[in-house]
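Weekly puzzle thread! Below is a chain. First person to post its structure in token form gets bragging rights.
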Amino acid sequence: MGEQVKRTVALGLLYSRSGSYARISDACRSGAMAAIARVNAAPARRIAFTAVERDPAGNVDLYAPLCQEILRDTPARHIIGCVTSWSRKELIPTLEKFNGTLWYAVPYEGFEASDHVVYLHACPNQHLLPLLDWAVPLYGDRSYLPGSNYIWGWEMNRLARQTLLAKGGRVLG
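Winning reply:
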């Protein structure tokens, strides 16, 4: 019996290989590449993936143009990538214009929904709210909310503050 011909599907990978988010991006990229290799190595699968990679180098201004380049100039319709809320939000207009889909594999703040993004990781109702439900009775309702000056930190602390105050707690700083 002859060898089965696999259909090849191009997948865009949009991870920064340098810059401030290179380490987390590299971990995500490694996972995506391992998944592609695993699918491609399975002889019974009738599909194979090929990666179309672009490197925004940690520059948020490059994400949308590189996404556009992938969707416009290659057969890829799906993008796997981005590790920040800012870069994800930058892609949405391009995804809408070129009818692409982003597979976003890191946590996000949960206050956005797009038909062009598959949110694969946890949002606050899956990690922050259960944490507060566990911690407040055990450790008390007086809290400090550390965080960074960034979308994720703002939203997590806004939700934590709202939840703690609703439980009669106090935010000390």
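Puzzle host: Confirmed. Bonus trivia for everyone else. Helices lie at 22-41, 60-73, 85-98, 128-139, 151-166.
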